Structures are given as structure tokens and as C-alpha cells.
Amino acid sequence: MLANRRWRCHSAAINPFAFLVICIDGWMNRNQQGVIEYLQEEIRVLKELFGKKPRFNDGQRRRLATKGKRLGRKTLDRIASLVTPNTLLAWHRRLSWLFVPLSGLMRWLI
After folding, report:
1. Does 91 share its domain with 43?
2. Enclosing domain of residue 92
3. How far apart (Å, rounded) are the C-alpha atoms in residues 106 and 100?
């Protein structure tokens, strides 16, 4: 019983290492958010400069679609600006199977 009380009392105290990790995590999150906001603004400026929508080749579409699929539709709705989320996910469905590594394809065929 005494050990249980000591454990509860110890778990209520703030661990200095955990506090440091939380501080660093908060700083990294703010830094990443700043980078995201900068890149979004840069995209807006480029769209203003060039006026029309860019035409992507299949390799560029595949790269954007792969990254977009990992983010998910809700996040894409919030941040996607060059291409709509529906377009990115359609590209993923259409192009992701075209670029299967040969070793993976061979395993699938066997």
C-alpha cells in the first residue's frame, strides 16, 4: 500500500525530461506552421504571377497525389490551393498503380 501512495505521488510530479520534450514539441509545431503558411503564400503569389493553372506531367501528379493521400481529404480541404482535393485523390487512384516498383510487381505476379 505504501508503494502505491509513493507511485501516485511521483506520477503527479512533473518530470523535467517530459517538460523539455513538450517545450521542444511546441516550438517545432510553431516553426512547421510558419513554414506551411509561408509556402501557402508563395503559391498564392505564383498563381497571381502566372495567372493560369499549371499543367503537371504524370510524375508531378503522382508526387502530389502521394503526398496528398497521406494528408487526407479534411487537411487537403484546408490547405490545397493549386489542385482541388478531389483531383488529387483521383490522380492517386489513377496513377499510383502505374509506378509500382518492379520487385513489388514481381511479388504480386508470382
Report:
1. no
2. 54-110
3. 10
